[in-house]
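Data deposition worksheet. Section B asks for the primary sequence of the deposited chain exactly as it was used as input, without tags or linkers unless they were present during the calculation. Section C holds the resulting structure in token form. Section D is free text for depositor observations; keep each observation to a single sentence. Incomplete worksheets are returned to the depositor.
Section A, Depositor: J.P.
Section B:
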Amino acid sequence: MEKGKLLSIIVPVFNEEGNINKLHGEIQNACNKMISSGSISEYEAIFINDGSTDNTQKVLEDIKKKNRNFHFIEFRRNFGQTPALKAGFDAARGDYIVTMDGDLQNDPADIPKLLEKLNEGYDVVSGWRWQRKDLFGKRLSSKIINLLRKRILKDELHDYGCSLKIYKKECIKDLQLFGELHRYIIGYLSIKGYKIGEIKVAHRPRQSGRTKYGWSRATNGFLDLLYLKFWANFSDRPLHFFGRLGLYQWAIAIMIVIEQIIKALIVRELTFGPLLALSLLLVITGLLFVIFGFLSEMMSRIYFKDQKIYSVKREG
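Section C:
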């Protein structure tokens, strides 16, 4: 790791008044050790209060009075983890940026290991909670989503859901966060061509507060996964996706009509039955898919007019 580097640590929090003081102390200890070893020259911790309704904001303000490296951003209401991370990324000044949860389940003592792995030539390093301390339902839903992700995105990472990650600054400039895509930042950057690493990290039981995870979030995660797959393959050519679906429906409709004509020649009778009705429906829906593909293609061209469809690693 080069000397003279600033490390930014971003921590979204929502109703975590019982965890923030201890987490801040652990972050401070870990960063002071890295400064002493020369790994970094300075650090900043940015806590984003995502519309908490408890005493989280008061705790943050008290810490701010004692630590010049500590900063907070207070949202007017609860916007969600993706906007909170986006606010942290926008405010971060660091050459290297760490993200982590505010519930004390991530251990700041793992940050030096992330830095060391990053220095091996990676652009991003993600934590792998190989011994998770969550409830069975949460572990089960995460396992299912991870299996689906491996099938759909064809990657080898074990744990997308771990919030403990470190990024080089240039990665953040290439991010376009919206919705709930914080779950798949790694996947998005992988699509862009960034080199992704992974290391085992500690995972601790929640000590205070309540988990914000539920099955609805798992459902949202699956839908976001499908969107990411579509974006990876067809964002700049949606006509190829929707047009194919339309052509496939027309092909099936033609096969049905041919089958019905052959049958009519044999029995010498042609009636408008369910199969011909299905073929007519497929012709109509196929046409709609093709039209939708053309409209999406025009929207895509407007979107990418001012966007880069490539990512440059270096120039000479």
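Section D:
The chain has ten helices and seven strands.
Residues 170 and 314 are 11 Å apart (CA to CA).
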